[in-house]
Design goal:
Elements lengths: L4 H4 L3 H23 L19 E3 L46 H4 L3 H14 L3 H4 L1 H4 L2 H4 L1 H6 L31 E2 L14 E3 L3 H14 L3 E7 L3 E7 L6 E8 L2 E7 L13 E3 L1 H15 L3 E2 L3 H5 L3 H6 L7 E6 L7 H14 L4 E4 L7 E7 L2 E9 L5 E6 L5
Parallel strand pairs: 1-8
Antiparallel strand pairs: 2-3, 3-7, 4-5, 5-6, 6-7, 9-10, 10-14, 11-12, 12-13, 13-14
């Protein structure tokens, strides 16, 4: 190999060391390249399990008209047809009144007996005036009238229910006239009753909702416009948005309302039913979630909680962070709860009780029928109050 001009001009001692130095430098470079370098990627947060599909439970039958309550009949006065056998004391006081003939005892007519009594009243002095008082037998019989008069007044009380019914914003959600119960096997168990199916084609059902939803004051936004699946985001004032799914199956169309968009139809098998109470609860919290005074809950907000609170609310599948206060509009846990409580009371959630503190914050239990939910209000190091919700008891 021809040596380069640089190597030839080197001194003789360096020419002998050139090759070993070249080998050493190559070895050092290879060693440095083989050393693993530390990664500067940020640790990823723990993966959150996908939220289960919630199917909106709709009334199976149209609401029946309220039966009119018939007023209770007023009690009629009982008038005895027989003359009470008390004319004997009337005879002795007045000598002008002739004694009644014995025939009147056999005749049970009150009118002939009263006429002779009334005629002497004009002729007699004070004694006949006292005679009508004992003969007025209806006085003891009018006592039932006094006791019967209060009975009509409490009759309207059944109409006044002690606790107003919850308002389900989707109670008047429309369906085609020929729609039947069932999902044709897409849903399982009791959840299957929350769906409808119709023999009409998917395009015809889509046209039906295009006209009917605005008439019922629903807003709709298309999300998916495939040939066998159409999804619309349906919302109403004061209600949590729902997702209307129109699915073509076996020549029919299945109608399903869910809490989120479902792209994989197999997810319907594990879907859960949302009761009317749960829908009303989410609708009551919708103004809080959409308010500009609050923000979304981020992992850094939870990381600034006290250590005990961080471990208490670490399970994101059980504890759902709903909103957090902002730095420009701070609120204490009690102030945030008062605002949430006002929204719940407006939706007739009145059974609100304070529970033992969990995670160092305020804890409340909401109960309505078979529905139960827990609310938590905890402050972090930035003086932000985080609002958590869980379905099950934290203890």
């Amino acid at each position: 190999m021809n040596q380069s001009y640089f190597v030839k001009n080197l001194p003789t001692p360096l020419q002998t060391l050139w090759r070993p130095m070249l080998l050493i430098s190559l070895g050092l470079h290879g060693f440095l390249l083989a050393i693993p370098m530390p990664s500067h990627q940020k640790p990823q947060p723990p993966k959150k399990e996908p939220e289960k599909v919630k199917i909106t439970q709709l009334p199976t039958t149209p609401p029946s008209p309220r039966p009119a309550i018939k007023p209770s009949p007023k009690p009629t006065l009982k008038v005895s047809q027989t003359i009470p056998p008390k004319p004997k004391p009337i005879r002795p006081p007045s000598t002008e009144i002739p004694p009644l003939p014995p025939k009147t005892k056999a005749i049970p007519r009150p009118q002939p007996s009263q006429t002779p009594e009334k005629r002497p009243q004009s002729k007699a002095t004070p004694t006949p005036s006292s005679t009508p008082t004992p003969s007025l037998s209806p006085t003891p019989e009018q006592s039932p009238q006094s006791t019967a008069t209060p009975t009509p007044s409490p009759s309207p009380t059944p109409e006044q229910s002690p606790t107003p019914a919850l308002q389900n914003p989707f109670a008047d959600f429309p369906f085609p006239d020929n729609a039947q119960l069932g999902s044709l096997g897409l849903l399982s168990g009791e959840t299957d009753k929350s769906a409808r199916n119709t023999i009409e084609a998917l395009a015809q059902v889509a046209d039906f909702y295009t006209k009917e939803l605005p008439a019922r004051k629903f807003n709709s936004q298309p999300f998916n416009d495939a040939t066998d699946l159409k999804v619309y985001k349906v919302s109403k004032e004061g209600a949590e948005p729902q997702f209307l799914h129109l699915i073509s199956k076996d020549g029919k169309t299945v109608i399903v309302l869910a809490s989120q968009e479902i792209k994989d139809l197999s997810a319907f098998k594990s879907a859960e039913t949302r009761s009317p109470e749960e829908i009303a609860f989410e609708s009551a919290l919708a103004p809080v979630k959409s308010s500009e005074d609050f923000g979304a809950v981020f992992p850094e907000d939870i990381s600034k909680l006290p250590p005990a609170a961080q471990s208490a609310f670490a399970d994101t599948n059980k504890f759902r962070g709903l909103v957090t206060t902002t730095t420009f509009k701070p609120k204490s846990p009690q102030e945030l709860f008062n605002e949430v409580q006002n929204q719940l009371i407006q939706r007739h959630f009145t059974q609100i009780s304070q529970e033992a503190s969990y995670g160092g914050g305020l804890t409340y239990k909401i109960t309505q029928g078979n529905f139960t939910s827990y609310l938590y209000f905890v402050a972090n190091a930035d003086n932000k109050t985080i609002f958590f919700v869980s379905k099950d008891s934290p203890f």
